[in-house]
Design goal:
Length: 334
């Protein structure tokens, strides 16, 4: 159902929802950017419509709502293990089409790739997603090439105009709350062209893996891991056992974000490390995003949000790397 309401009524709806839900959306953190005079747009809790940043792309994705940066899985003593409690409220997340497609990748990894991850599932099952449309493409986006510029798998779509709020609801709760509102035909905004496009080859020969292409990233990449942390489909983590100072035999186990690009990620027993070379790490990441995941799940892992290009301090472009790989494959097939 489509509805047209004013902003005051939307904020009243937010107030009602906050009794049972925590609402997350892209939010501007003034002075929270890379430099003291720059802002950061990332996900945070909001309570009013005005707090949501609709006009700019968020620097970070929504994934930390379902995959907290540091998440306590369970507590332990010598004799007892107690699983951590889930959040007291359900969640509502505002996100764009590329991120909604990223949700599908996360679901595949955590719910359909062997045993179900119970910690992800308990958050996922109690989260609702509201789509934010894109009237124009943003810098470094290539969602059209990845087929993620359109999405219909949402609980609701929202568009804010100068005077009103337009909502397309697929959620009974919203339908009930907006039952007396003005009916309105609402079609989600989406882009049909980006400034950047990529072409991913159907198959990648071994010669590309062995190419000197990757040497460039050995010298340029500084192994900061930023590209992984902003990516909505990167899911690598490590485990940390935290022992309490007042009782060294009690503590908690935490799941903490990790990065395949940083030093130490591939360390193994005996002091050995796979992929010490940063070019090899870049090759691993790229091939995982555009080849390995597709072979296993029949869809590309990358959704073309462009955040990795936005955040890289060395101006390494993931989209440019994809096109370099494609050029090598074409050369190989001549």
């Amino acid at each position: 159902m489509g509805y047209q309401i004013n902003k005051t009524k939307m904020n009243t709806l937010f107030t009602d929802l906050l009794e049972n839900y925590t609402i997350y959306a892209p939010k501007r953190f003034v002075g929270g950017g890379t430099f003291a005079d720059t802002d950061c747009i990332r996900y945070g809790e909001i309570s009013t419509l005005e707090e949501i940043e609709f006009s700019e792309k968020s620097d970070y994705s929504f994934k930390e709502v379902l995959l907290p940066i540091s998440e306590t899985l369970f507590y332990f003593t010598e004799a007892v293990i107690k699983e951590s409690d889930p959040p007291p409220k359900e969640a509502i997340v505002f996100l764009r089409s590329c991120d909604l497609h990223s949700l599908n990748r996360l679901d595949t990894i955590y719910l359909k790739n062997g045993p179900v991850d119970p910690y992800y599932k308990r958050l996922r099952d109690h989260t609702h997603f509201i789509l934010m449309g894109c009237e124009n493409t943003f810098e470094n986006c290539f969602c059209v090439s990845m087929g993620t510029n359109l999405s219909t798998n949402y609980d609701a779509y929202i568009k804010v105009t100068a005077e009103d709020v337009l909502i397309d609801s697929h959620w009974n709760l919203l339908d009930q709350a907006l039952a007396n509102s003005q009916p309105f035909t609402v079609v989600p905004d989406s882009v049909s062209i980006n400034k950047i496009s990529v072409e991913i080859p159907e198959s990648i020969p071994q010669s590309v893996f062995d190419s000197t292409l990757w040497d460039d990233y050995t010298t340029r990449c500084i192994a900061c891991g930023r590209c992984n942390f902003v990516c909505p489909t990167c899911t690598c983590f490590t485990m940390q056992d935290l022992f309490y100072s007042d009782n060294g035999k009690a503590g908690e186990r935490r799941r903490v974000w990790a990065s395949c690009q940083v030093d130490g990620y591939t360390d193994v027993a005996g002091g050995h490390a796979f992929r010490e070379n940063k070019g090899q790490r870049m090759r691993f990441k790229v091939m995982h995003k555009i080849s390995d995941y597709k072979k296993r799940f029949d869809t590309q892992m990358c959704t073309g949000c462009g955040r990795c290009d936005d955040i890289c301090p060395e101006y390494i472009s993931f989209s440019n790397c994809i096109n370099k790989v494609n050029a090598l494959v074409k050369e190989e097939n001549r």
